[in-house]
């Protein structure tokens, strides 16, 4: 595996791990938030990947909350 492929593989792994941890964050959990912070600090070279993962998660949550709000409004 060449260096570029290794970096891309690591980036995908970090994104997957970060998205998985964000999915677990369904309550205000200081330990999980601390873990996410540490993971980000340990992978500063992948900051863009982590930011993209957070944006992706926020869009998903926003969409879910919109659906939830509309479904309870008309119930």
Automatic annotation (TrEMBL):
GO BP term, pick one: termination of RNA polymerase II transcription
Domain CID, first and last residues per copy: 10-75
Domain of life: Eukaryota
PROSITE patterns for the chain: CID (PS51391)
Signal peptide: none
InterPro entries (alphabetical): CID_dom, ENTH_VHS, PCF11-like
Molecular function terms from GO: mRNA binding; RNA polymerase II complex binding
Record GO cellular component, one term: cytoplasm
PANTHER family, alphabetized: PRE-MRNA CLEAVAGE COMPLEX 2 PROTEIN PCF11, PRE-MRNA CLEAVAGE COMPLEX II
Name the record gives this protein: CID domain-containing protein
């Amino acid at each position: 595996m060449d260096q570029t492929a290794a970096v891309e593989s690591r980036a995908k792994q970090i994104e997957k791990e970060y998205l998985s941890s964000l999915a677990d964050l369904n309550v205000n959990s200081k330990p999980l938030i601390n873990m996410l912070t540490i993971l980000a600090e340990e992978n500063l070279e992948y900051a863009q990947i982590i930011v993209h993962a957070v944006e992706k998660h926020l869009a998903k949550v926003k969409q879910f909350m919109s659906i939830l709000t509309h479904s309870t409004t008309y119930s």
